[in-house]
């Protein structure tokens, strides 16, 4: 496997693992705050990020490279509100999207078209995740600090999760 591609994909493994830990920390905060629908949503999202990491690990190894399993920094543990959580989640996803775009760019520079093809799944996934986070933030903006609205929002996320256990699409 091309060394530059192997290195940048290994960097992406770290980013996906960091995403998974961050969303797990958010889920735990939400659950311990009694916001259970949001907690379920974030637990699942954390699992999905781990799957993204695994996808990269398997791909690198199958292509004759060596996937390196990183240690992960301690994620933020305290959050102020749902808006705080989803603002952070969107910022984080935008960062990840930029990293994915950089990989696609390097694939073209290195003329590695099979990795380029593999990365298209991640490109589509990032579009979806950013749109989802924006959609949720718009809803939270509308609700403001209305307690009944926040209760319904949390219940909606729970329903969404139960109706669509394999994904986070709205
Ligand atoms: Fe892996 O999609 Fe979010 O970060």
Written description of the protein model:
The chain is mainly α. The chain has one domain: Ferritin, core subunit, four-helix bundle (Ferritin), CATH 1.20.1260.10. It is 78% helix and 0% strand. The protein has 5 helices and no strands. The longest helix is centred in the last third of the chain and has 31 residues, at 113-143. It is elongated. The site of hydroxy diiron-OXO moiety has 8 residues, from helix 1, helix 2, helix 3 and helix 4.
How are the elements arranged and paired?
Layout: H1 3-32, H2 36-62, H3 82-109, H4 113-143, H5 147-163
The chain binds hydroxy diiron-OXO moiety.
State the gist of this model.
The chain has helices spanning 3-32, 36-62, 82-109, 113-143, 147-163.
Tell me the structural class: mainly alpha
CATH class: Mainly Alpha
- Beta-strand residue fraction: under 5%
The CATH homologous superfamily corresponds to Ferritin, core subunit, four-helix bundle
Q: Output mean pLDDT.
A: 93
Please compute the radius of gyration using only Cα atoms: 17 Å
Order of helices and strands: HHHHH
CATH architecture: Up-down Bundle
By DSSP, the count of extended strands is 0
**First-to-last CA distance:** 37 Å
Q: Helical stretch count?
A: 5
- Ranges where pLDDT stays below 50 over 5 or more residues in a row are none
State the CATH topology.
Answer: Ferritin
- C-alpha geometry: elongated
Q: Give the bound compounds.
A: hydroxy diiron-OXO moiety
Helix content: over 70%
Count of distinct structural domains: 1
Profile the largest sheet: none
């Amino acid at each position: 496997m091309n060394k530059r591609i192997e290195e940048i994909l290994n960097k992406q493994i770290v980013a996906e693992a960091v995403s998974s830990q961050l969303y797990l920390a958010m889920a735990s905060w939400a659950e311990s705050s009694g916001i259970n629908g949001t907690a379920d949503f974030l637990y699942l999202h954390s699992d999905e990020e781990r799957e993204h990491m695994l996808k990269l690990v398997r791909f690198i190894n199958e292509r004759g490279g060596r996937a390196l399993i990183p240690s992960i920094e301690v994620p933020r543990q305290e959050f102020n509100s749902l808006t705080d959580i989803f603002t952070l989640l969107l910022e984080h996803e935008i960062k990840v999207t930029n990293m994915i775009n950089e990989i696609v760019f390097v694939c073209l520079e290195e003329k590695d078209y099979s990795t380029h093809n593999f990365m298209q799944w991640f490109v589509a996934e990032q579009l979806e995740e950013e749109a989802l986070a924006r959609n949720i933030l718009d809803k939270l903006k509308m609700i403001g600090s209305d307690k009944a609205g926040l209760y319904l929002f949390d219940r909606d996320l729970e329903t969404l999760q139960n109706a669509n256990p394999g994904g986070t699409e709205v």
